[in-house]
Design brief:
Layout: E1 5-11, H1 30-38, E2 40-46, H2 52-61, H3 65-68, H4 84-90, E3 94-99, E4 116-120, E5 130-133, E6 136-139, H5 144-158, E7 165-170, H6 207-210, H7 216-219, H8 222-225, H9 235-270, E8 277-283, H10 302-305, E9 306-307, E10 309-312, E11 321-328, H11 332-340, H12 354-357, E12 368-373, E13 386-391, E14 394-399, H13 405-408, E15 417-422, H14 440-456, H15 468-472
Parallel strand pairs: 1-7, 1-8, 2-11, 3-4, 3-7
Antiparallel strand pairs: 2-9, 2-10, 4-5, 5-6, 8-10, 12-13, 13-14, 14-15
C-alpha cells in the first residue's frame, strides 16, 4: 500500500461549536466541513489539558502533560523526545512545520525532527508577523493565516522525488486578540445569538470556578474589543455589546482559516494527491464563546475541552463517518503513525483511531478519559489547577487548590473542591451533584474510575485529595 502523505492543520482556540459540521449556529465553515464530508468527523475528541502549549505537546508526542513535561504555558518542551514527526522521519518521510510552535521559542527549544521549520515567535502576530527559521529571524508582510499557508505550500512545491512527506500547518488564529484580515472586516455584522448558558449564575458550582476572571462582561479589555463600549449601558447591556464585538472578530479570524484550509485541499486535489493524503483539521482545545458568560478555556467543562477533529484519507476512511467514541489529543500521534505504517514509540500513550474510523468492527474505545490542568499562577484568568475523569454519561472534577497560586502568594488556599455532572440529564453542566446524597453511588464509582485512569496514565493524585471513605462519610 502507498504510504500516505500527512497534513495536520491545527488552529488555536477554534471551538467545535464554531464549525458548521458540528452544528454551529453562529457561522459556517464550508471548507472545513468538506474534509468531514470526504472522511470522518470525530464527535467526542477532547484535550487532556486545555491550554495551547500543553495540547500541542500532547499532539506531537502522544503523551500526557506530566510525561512530555509541558504542563503549562511556560514549561518548554524537550524537543528531542520521540514524536510522530521523528518516527515518520525515521521511516523516510520528509517533514516540515510552519506557523505556531509556542513550546519554548528561542535557543535550545527550536523544533526538532523537521527537515524544514519556519515558526512564529511565541504567540506571534496577526499582521506582518516575525518568523524564526534555521536561517534566523525575519518579518513577512501580510496576514499570518495566509502567510503560514503560503510558506507550507511553497515548501511542498519545492520537493522532488516520490518519498512521502508530512507537513504541520499550525495557525495562530483564532487566538486572542482576534485581529481579522482586512478583507473580512465587514463580515458578521448581523446579531450573533448568545448561548443558552449566557446567564449562568454558577449557583451550584464551587468557589474554584466562580473565582475565574474570564467573564466577557467584566474581563474583555479595550485591546480585545478595539474600542470602548458606548457610554450609559447597563451591566447587562454592556456585556451583550462586548459579546457581539468579540464574536465578530473571532468569527472573522475563523473565516480566514476556513479559506486557507480550502487552499490546501484544492492544492492536493489539483495534484491528484487528495486520496493518498491523511488530511487532518483540529484545534488545540475548545473555547468558551460566551458559554456560561465566559471566554477562554482551561476548565474541564465541555466547551473548553471539546476539540474539533475532522480528517480525510479516502484509501482508508469511508466518506461521511461520524465517530462518537471518546478520543483525545494523545491519540493523534498513534493514528498518524498507523496510517503511515510506521512504528510508534513505546512511550506513546494514545491509541490509533483508524480502525474505528474505517469501520473495522469491534472498537477498543475507552470508557472515559483523564484530564489535568496544572497552572496555579495565571494572574489574568485565575482558573485554579484541577483534574478529573469524563465518561459518556458523567464527569467528576477535583479542584485541588494547593496554595501555589500567583507565584507562591497563596491566592488559591481555599480547600479542595469537587464537582460532579450528569451529562445526560444536564448537558450544559449547570447542576453540580457532588454534594447530592442521591448521587453518592455515582460519585464513588467515578472517584474510583478517576483514580484508575490517573494511575494508568502514570500520574498521581494531589496530596490534598481526601480518601474516598472520608468523602462519602
Amino acid at each position: 500500500m502507498t504510504r500516505p502523505n500527512v497534513v495536520v492543520i491545527l488552529t488555536d482556540d477554534h471551538a467545535a461549536h464554531a464549525i458548521g459540521a458540528y452544528g454551529s449556529v453562529v457561522n459556517t465553515t464550508p471548507r472545513i466541513d468538506e474534509i468531514a464530508d470526504a472522511g470522518a468527523l470525530v464527535e467526542n475528541c477532547f484535550a487532556t489539558n486545555s491550554l495551547c502549549s500543553p495540547s500541542r505537546a500532547s499532539i506531537l508526542t502522544g503523551t500526557y502533560s506530566h510525561i512530555n513535561g509541558v504542563t503549562t504555558l511556560v514549561t518548554p518542551i524537550d524537543a528531542s523526545q520521540p514524536s510522530f514527526v521523528s518516527q515518520l522521519k525515521e521511516q523516510g518521510y520528509r517533514t516540515a512545520i510552519v506557523g505556531k510552535w509556542h513550546m519554548g521559542d528561542g535557543a535550545g527549544h527550536d523544533p526538532e525532527g523537521f527537515d524544514y521549520w519556519d515558526v512564529l515567535i511565541e504567540q506571534g502576530e496577526y499582521h506582518d508577523p516575525t518568523f524564526l527559521s534555521a536561517d534566523g529571524l525575519r518579518t513577512e508582510k501580510g496576514y499570518a493565516t495566509d502567510l503560514i499557508t503560503d510558506l507550507a505550500l511553497r515548501w511542498l512545491e519545492s520537493l522532488e522525488g516520490d518519498d512521502p512527506w508530512c507537513v504541520l500547518i499550525w495557525h495562530k488564529a483564532p487566538h486572542r486578540p482576534w485581529q481579522p484580515a482586512p478583507r473580512h472586516a465587514e463580515r458578521h455584522r448581523e446579531p450573533i445569538p448568545v448561548p443558552i448558558t449566557w446567564d449562568d449564575d454558577y449557583a451550584t458550582r464551587t468557589s474554584s470556578s466562580r473565582r475565574a476572571a474570564m467573564r466577557i462582561a467584566e474581563h474583555l479589555n479595550a485591546e480585545d474589543l478595539k474600542t470602548d463600549p458606548p457610554r450609559g449601558l447597563s451591566y447587562e447591556d454592556e456585556g451583550l455589546w462586548k459579546y457581539q464585538r468579540f464574536m465578530e472578530d473571532y468569527l472573522r479570524c475563523v473565516d480566514a482559516v476556513d479559506e486557507n484550509v480550502g487552499r490546501v485541499t484544492d492544492w492536493l486535489r489539483a495534484r491528484g494527491e487528495f486520496d493518498d493524503t491523511l488530511l487532518m483539521y483540529a484545534s488545540d482545545q475548545g473555547f468558551f464563546l460566551g458559554d456560561h458568560g465566559w471566554f477562554d478555556k482551561r476548565f474541564m467543562y465541555e466547551e473548553s475541552i471539546r476539540m474539533p477533529l475532522v480528517m480525510s484519507y479516502p484509501r482508508r476512511i469511508p466518506a461521511g463517518v461520524r465517530y462518537e467514541g471518546i478520543s483525545t489529543n494523545v491519540d493523534f500521534a498513534r493514528t498518524i503513525l498507523d496510517a503511515a505504517g510506521a512504528d510508534a514509540s513505546p512511550r506513546m500513550q494514545g491509541r490509533s483511531l483508524l480502525h474505528d474510523l474505517g469501520g473495522g468492527g469491534e472498537s477498543d474505545a475507552p470508557d472515559g478519559f483523564y484530564y489535568r490542568y496544572w497552572e496555579h499562577d495565571d494572574v489574568f484568568h485565575r482558573a485554579p489547577a484541577h483534574y478529573g475523569y469524563r465518561t459518556a454519561r458523567h464527569k467528576l472534577i477535583y479542584f485541588y487548590n494547593d496554595g501555589l497560586g500567583l507565584a507562591g502568594t497563596g491566592a488559591f488556599t481555599y480547600p479542595g473542591e469537587w464537582e460532579l455532572y450528569d451529562l445526560e440529564a444536564d448537558p450544559n453542566e449547570e447542576h453540580n451533584r457532588a454534594g447530592d446524597p442521591e448521587s453518592a453511588e455515582v460519585f464513588g464509582r467515578m472517584r474510583a474510575a478517576l483514580r484508575a485512569a490517573q494511575s494508568a496514565a502514570g500520574d498521581e493524585p494531589h496530596p490534598s485529595e481526601p480518601a474516598l471513605d472520608a468523602i462519602l462519610g
